[in-house]
Design a protein that fits this description.
The chain is an alpha+beta fold and 327 residues long. Among the domains are: 108 residues, Tumour Suppressor Smad4 (Sandwich), CATH 2.60.200.20; 95 residues, no CATH class. Helices cover 44% and strands 15% of the residues. Helix 5 crosses helix 8. The chain is extended.
Length: 327
């Protein structure tokens, strides 16, 4: 795993000799002091000599806060704290003084294509249900034949041919059915007075036809007005929050663009080119235009403008939110 850190935001007036620093395999130090793997120039002495220490562990790279003024990760309002450590991931932004540092971690092992492994669930397919279908069908057919033979033998054993002197005609089902019908007909009664549950009685009919007059229902006005008031209050609060967020976002965008244009200004770039070119007596006037074209192409290729704008925007938005909470 290789680790590199790139400067995406620097304080005004500080010369940057190397924008991207590649760290050794075991990590290194970040600070103002001489001998640090990533040395940051700081005239205000806000950055400590050894501001942060990065070490490699089994869980990846760990960063230790060894500063006096604090180490901030990913725009956090609270510093990590001296003596505390945290895991560093790819894409994290470290805030050290007025510097913003972008962390890049690349692991060649994770980039390799892994071999396709057969899941362990496939081992359970050894018990193929289709392999036993034929045996199951044969067993079921054998059981059905055996059961059929047993039932046939029981039916043959239950049949007893006996001679009786009883009149077989008396057991005629049609005769019995006729007698039952005659009995039911004779038991039919025409007395309707015994029917107590007549739904069409005169009293019940009158009661069912008498519809009570409904009184007009009026909803309680205070409850409705209270719920309507709560809804209007919630809508107004939501609109106020949306307007406040929009105003903060617009202000943060304007602040980020202002900082980015300041870094692209001729005065800022000329001073930076003078520090890099180091003109001497024998060398002529620096070719600023050629240097600017190479610088601009490198910035576009590395997407430094986009990264800086994103970092400036997040920083400005955080400042706007903090100012809104204080007010």
């Amino acid at each position: 795993m290789s680790l590199s850190i790139r400067i995406i935001c620097s304080p005004d007036g500080e010369s940057i000799s190397e924008w991207t620093t590649a760290f050794p395999e075991n990590g290194g130090e970040i600070g103002r002091g001489y001998g640090s793997v990533m040395q940051l120039n700081d005239a205000t002495r806000t950055i400590s000599s050894t501001h942060a220490i990065i070490r490699k562990s089994n869980r990846g790279y760990q960063i230790l806060d060894n500063s006096t003024n604090g180490l901030f990760i990913n725009g956090s309002d609270k510093p990590l704290g001296k003596g505390n450590q945290s895991t560093v991931n790819d894409g994290d932004v470290l805030s050290i003084g007025k510097y913003r540092l972008l962390v890049s971690c690349f692991s060649p092992e994770s980039a390799r294509s892994q071999k396709l492994q057969q899941p362990s669930e496939y081992s359970e397919l050894d018990d193929d249900p289709f392999s036993s279908d034929e045996n199951t069908i044969i067993d079921d057919s054998m059981k059905a034949q055996t059961t059929l033979k047993q039932r046939q033998s029981q039916q043959h054993s239950d049949v007893n041919f006996t001679i009786t002197t009883d009149n077989v005609v008396e057991d005629d089902p049609f005769l019995n059915d006729t007698e039952i019908k005659e009995k039911q007909h004779s038991s039919f009664s025409t007395n309707f007075d015994s029917v107590d549950d007549d739904p069409f009685k005169e009293e019940d009919l009158k009661g069912s036809l008498s519809f009570p007059m409904r009184e007009p229902q009026t909803a309680p006005a205070p409850v409705q007005s209270l719920s309507q008031f709560d809804m209007n209050f919630a809508i107004n609060q939501l609109r106020h929050i949306e307007e406040q967020m929009k105003a903060q976002t617009d202000t943060a965008i304007e602040m980020a663009i202002t900082r980015l244009l300041k870094e692209m200004s001729p005065e800022y770039i000329e001073s930076m080119f003078n520090d890099i070119s180091s003109p001497s007596m024998f060398s002529g006037k620096p070719k600023y235009w050629e240097m600017y074209k190479r610088y601009f192409e490198r910035q576009q290729k590395n997407r430094d403008w986009q990264v800086k704008f994103h970092a400036y925007f997040q920083d400005s938005l955080r400042q706007q939110r903090n100012a809104g909470e204080k007010t």
